[in-house]
Amino acid sequence: MAHQIMAVLLSREGETGAAAVHLETAVKLSPDEPELRFNLAKAYRDLGRNLDAAQHLQTVSQAWPDRADVWLEMGIVLRRAEDFAAAAKATAKAVSLGAQDAQVLSNLASMYVQTGDTARAEAAAMEALKLDPSFSAAWVNLGVVHESRDDIAKAIQVYEKVLAAAPEDATAASRRALALLASGHLGAGWQAYAERHTWPGIITCAGQNSAPLWNGSDLTGRSILIWTEQGLGDEILCGTMIADAVRQAEDVTIACSERLVPAFTRAFPDAQVVPRGDNSLGQVKAQTFDVQASLTELGAALRSNVDSFATLQPYLQVDPDRVNALRAKYPSGDGKRPLIGIAWQSGNAQARLQKSSDLTAWADVLGQEGAAFVSLQYGNIAPQLERLQQESGLTLQTDSDIDPVADFDAFIHQVAAMDLVIATSNTTVHAAGALGVPVWTLVPCGLGRPWYWFIDRADSLWYPTMKLYRQQRAGDWTAPLAAAASDLKSWIARWTAPSSDRPL
Q1: Radius of gyration for the chain, computed over Cα atoms and rounded to the nearest angstrom
Q2: Which of 19, 116, 202, 443 could form a disulfide with 475 if both were Cys (CB 3.0 to 4.6 A apart)?
Q3: pLDDT, tens digit (0-9, with 9 covering 90-100), for 251-285
Q4: How many CB atoms are closer than 10 A to CB 255?
Q5: How many angstroms separate the CA atoms of 279 and 296, rounded?
């Protein structure tokens, strides 16, 4: 009892960690008391120890199987642990026990979307709206359901309905902007996307330099500051438009991630390339320019319709000697086998699960004869490589000398050494496309699909050497991997070794 009282007092003071210590002791002393475990689970939840919380909640649910609040807590911690299927099951159980609340049902709809179960997601969102027809989060989740089915027009209608009632709803505004872009309504999409610096969680350099935003006017004899944003993939994508601006302007300064400075310096030798911080223009904050432009201004001025993509060419440059040294290093045997680089996961924090696949699902691709496969996947992949070998007997060449996080320029050269790249939608495919390396991109449908792959295209407007393989159902990589494996067999048969003057 003393430990329980101390835990309550410490919780009131905001000392959650110390409270958890007392609750742990209390549970050890009274392991059959579900109230103690329930409180400990909630403390673990607040500390971000979601799996520990779920373990205790599982025990509590056996003692209190009919308490909706226990299953609601289970749904919360499992959702935070990104086990969306289990989270949806627990939350649905809470709803069946009486947790008939618009917020709960809206959250359930979101969990079902994450698992690709759009039918249940739609049903949950509609139930939420029956309880509260004005609940904007449920409307947004309904719009996401339509997006997950590639019914973008219907999704946009839903988002516009939300914004008509609540113009300040940032989630509806951001989803509408991206949906407009994805559906090819580029003019309206760029205009809506221009407001992204006001959306929660979006970091840009808007307002840091006093130069007016470029409106597409003639750049002859003028100076322009161009700053990139978001992740490296988005920055590389932005680079396809920077090349156009560099050709037009008298003086160009590019502020990009420090990891991209070497690559952009080679790509744009007539421009000044400087590093920026996550949300700072750094050394060019106070410099004077005639105009400035971010992705939005470049897109609105240079990519206002499909025809404006027609003349795009690869723009990243590499050192041929470095590339040839890497080609010689990898297991291409006598030079009669193509080097194929693969990457199967995304590091995107918001859509990592939707954009990532399981390496073992690649067995039909990696089992192709007549090719050498090299991992281009960043991060700790040792456990996945071991599992691949155990389950299929297949191995994948890795290069411990290249760390994309520490030296992204080395990674760009590694990608340039490949004859073909096959990967899920991540930074790797942007690097390959910008280099002109043939690249097959596995595109998720639904929540994880980046807007810039558009809808129902088998090619990429941004990268002429890219081919797109799309999911048919969110979370299911069977179809795109099967199609890629089938195409790869004939691609290997047709492949011929590059000449010594292979363009780089």
Answers
A1: 26
A2: 116
A3: 999 999 999 999 999 999 999 999 998 778 988 99
A4: 28
A5: 16
